[in-house]
Every structure is written in structure tokens, then in C-alpha cells.
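Revision sheet: C-alpha cells.
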Amino acid sequence: MSELLEPGGLLVVGTTAGVRGGPTDQDLAASTTALSLSNRFSDWHLTPFDTDSSWSVSVYAKPGILETHAHPDGIFILNAPAKKTDASDSDVSKNWSLAER
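Predicted:
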């Protein structure tokens, strides 16, 4: 799995905590790769993980420095709405569009 990541890249995995494939199995699998555990949370809201957590969100990092970009890469963002040109164009939401950058 680590060969799919850029240097410094992150792998985020969310699973139930007490089942096969949970954090214990994930840590064991990661130990056979270049990935190391950088954070673990008990939910997607980043609540701290503890032994009573029923869910886990594990963040593994590949060694290296992630190259940053000046703009989003492969992320959809909203363009500003076009100016209203006439009274028939009352639905502003139809002026929003997604653009891939």
C-alpha cells in the first residue's frame, strides 16, 4: 500500500475498532511497510481514541516530505455564481458549477 503514496503522503482508514481488520490488524499490516501510525481518533470528528472506542480512524504516514501545490489538486471547488442578467434567472443556485482543478 505504501508504494501508492507520494513521500509524506497519508493513508486514512476508518473501521469499527473491535473486529477483524480493526486498528490492531491495521498496525500489524503497517508494520510490514514503510507506513507509521501518526494519529488515531475514535471518530471522524477527531475525538481522542481510547480502549473503549467502538470506532477508529487511523492516520498512517509515509516517510518523506509531501510536495505542496499552489492550488487544489484533483479537488472539486465551487466557482462564484454568474451575475444575474434578467428577472427570469431567479434561481441563483443554478449559476453555481463545479470545476476540477
